[in-house]
């Protein structure tokens, strides 16, 4: 009982947790949860919603919390020991999940309740929980023969380990690469902020000169501003070759194995492919619908993208006599063309986006829209000194959520940005147990002379992740399994993507965009330029997102067993969307963590799918005023608070009054004639 994971706690006791607590603590909690399951299956009373479905929903609460703490840390603050524990724990948890889903007695009880559902007086949320539980069993092998159940267990155990290894390899490759520059002339074109950050990185690594890495705050400015084309090429090659170098971190076999095992699993369960299995529980419903959705967008975006690319190539030729535009040229010349066309220098924007001010800004937006207040507190345990902690309340002072925010890259943190949770919201025994929500990002670090100044892209990323966080914080459902972001995957991006729209509005920027030294409000001509340039190269951006969605569907929409070469297969999948010449030494699949490690397999299209919803939703806000309380209340009441308690399209229609108009996205993107 000295193990903190086995104690009762509210906020996560990070400072008390040690690596040796995880394996025994989680193993013990698995036993406790198994006992809870036995008490359901051994109940002699006839199966009812209360003694079976609701009882099952309330099992494993402490286990869920312990595993979320562990795997969140494995993403945000990992080390070799934690990664080893993850490799041990994953198959154990996979076996436990299968013990649950393949438990015949438990399924028999749930099925009994499900079969008599029309005679029961269940409310909408109860009906949804019952359906979700029943499908959880029936879609995951409850009806299989014993031999097939054993095969399923083996597949799931292997997959759990392979996905972890995939992520470890990507992190290791990211951390391994560094480019040391010792000649000051080779820094030509780079802004002072990027040079100072590289100097600081070199000092941290005890090296003379300037060190650039594959972390986004280091990599992106280098690709956008460095005049030295050879060095841009070197950085681009390293970024594109992550886990594709036939070394100990190579992911080619892992990619093939994951795709094949997912396909075998789907076939075992009676589906044509992994995509057919996944999409049955999505708004899109079928691979055919996803493919036609992507194809329709491709037809609209491709001509615009080709025109933009041709213009960029011409511009690079006129400027620097570049005969053939390469991948390491794109961001560099796009930045120069953008500057010429809109007289907008991204670096000139950064002094107006001090991280702390942007945080205040997003909090103010949340207050004006949803009546939330954020108070930074120092009495909440955290897993790293960089993490900021907040107590969130409503306008009546009622506690809403704990909020953790972790903003800067470090060696133990995977790349990218994400929202997660340390404790779910639920209503139990008449008490509304409030959630603990976290966002994790990799933003530009402060330097010796400057605070953390964000690029505009980082500003939109912060708003995006905060939109997910609001979905978690404002959750207000009875059951944790339907709470917050527990929604269809192609609906989960709506709250995040819709909030990005506020970044482009004068009314919002006036709340926080002040110069970090002078306090001067961002000049309105800069706001206008941000707005005017919002659709710059939108055709190419759309094509890029579509290419990722199509690659995902290529891996997961059919039988991958004949694929022998990851690179050849990927190149073929990209054929209809590629603009730049291919680089033989590069491969995206081997570091495509969204689909091979995270939860986006057969679901990457959902970013574009949700863009249709978010463009349509924001148009509604714009009609009535972007801080209109009535529209904000409807969004909160019908989208943010409802989680997965109803069909997502029904919730959207309740908010909007109609189904989304796909043209809203094309109009916003400037792709409609």
Please describe what this structure looks like.
The protein has 673 residues and is of the alpha+beta class. Among the domains are: 4-143, Endopeptidase. Chain P, domain 1 (Glutathione S-transferase Yfyf (Class Pi), Chain A, domain 2, Up-down Bundle); 177-240, no CATH class. 56% of the residues lie in helices and 6% in strands. It is built from 27 helices and 9 strands. It has helices at 19-41, 49-57, 61-76, 80-101, 104-115, 124-138, 146-176, 192-204, 216-225, 229-240, 252-268, 274-279, 287-320, 327-342, 346-349, 355-370, 456-473, 493-500, 506-512, 524-532, 538-556, 566-573, 593-596, 606-624, 629-640, 648-656, 663-668, and strands at residues 179-181, 210-212, 372-376, 388-394, 399-406, 418-423, 426-428, 431-433, 436-440. A 5-stranded mixed sheet has the order 3-4-5-9-6. 44% of the residues are buried. The model has no long low-confidence stretch (mean pLDDT 96).
Structure annotation, total helices = 27
Q: What is the tally of beta strands?
A: 9
Question: Helicity, in percent?
Answer: 55-70%
Task: Supply the helix-strand structural class.
Answer: alpha+beta
Q: What is the gyration radius calculated from CA atoms?
A: 25 Å
Bulk shape: globular
Chain oligomer state: single chain
Overall CATH architecture of the domain at 4-143: Up-down Bundle
